[in-house]
Amino acid sequence: MCKWRLTQGASAFGHLPASSSSSSSSSFCGCCCFVVLLFWMSALALPCHEPRRDTPLPKAPNSSSSSASAPASAGRHVRSYNHLRGDARWRKLYSFNKFFLQIEQNGKVSGTKSHDCLDSVMLITSVETGVVAVKSYSTNYFLAMNKNGKVYGSRAFNNDCKLKERIEENGYNTYASYSWKHNGRQMFVALNGRGATKKGQKTRRKNTTAHFLPMAVQPQIDFFY
User: Can you give the residue range of the structural domain that contains 181?
Assistant: First the structure.
């Protein structure tokens, strides 16, 4: 519509009669008519700035990206926080010093070098935001830490079994007691260089002995029944 008006206005000027150069008054009159006609045509062209109804309005620079990313961000939100909704994850916890965390048949927690040890297959389940329970599904013991910093396997789930799970800067996870601290410091599950557990009082977040890499596994369920 806008383009059509401007085009028609331009062609109309081609049909204007040529002004005589011999008479100054007629030239002046012709100029005045030209100015008036130009002003009139400009006034008619003003509505052309309105967008056509069948043409989509231009969007703000970030509107398209935000609208396109809204469903994706919602999907990421759901995926990112599934671990806060009580889901279960099959994992082997591989320590920074190359041991698989295991809970033995007698409830002792230690590290093993065996890749096929079923005692090291863990079911990690969220119990609340950022807090998990870790259970060996071959021995049915929960990974636990008491107020004295001792790491052990517990038959029943209790406050000792609540562990705060956090991803550290190096990509490994740490597991700290949710219920107990030592002199205001968090106590972490950790394995020393021989695969034995360390007292929680002697652990720190930055110490790699407390760092574990959760490795996804697909356990054979029939082994457990």
Answer: 81-219
Give the contacts of 56 (CB within 8 A, at least 6 positions apart).
none
| Cα gap 118→133, rounded to integer Å | 18
Query: Has residue 97 been placed in a domain?
Result: yes
29 or 95, higher pLDDT: 95
pLDDT tens for residues 213-225? 999 987 554 444 4
**What pLDDT sits at residue 132?**
96
Cα 65 to Cα 71: distance, rounded to the nearest angstrom? 11
Task: Note whether residue 76 is domain-resident.
Answer: no
Asked whether residue 197 is domain-assigned, the answer is yes
Residue 11 lies inside a defined structural domain of this protein: no
Q: What is the pTM of this model?
A: 0.61
Judge whether 130 and 165 are in contact, CB under 8 Å. yes
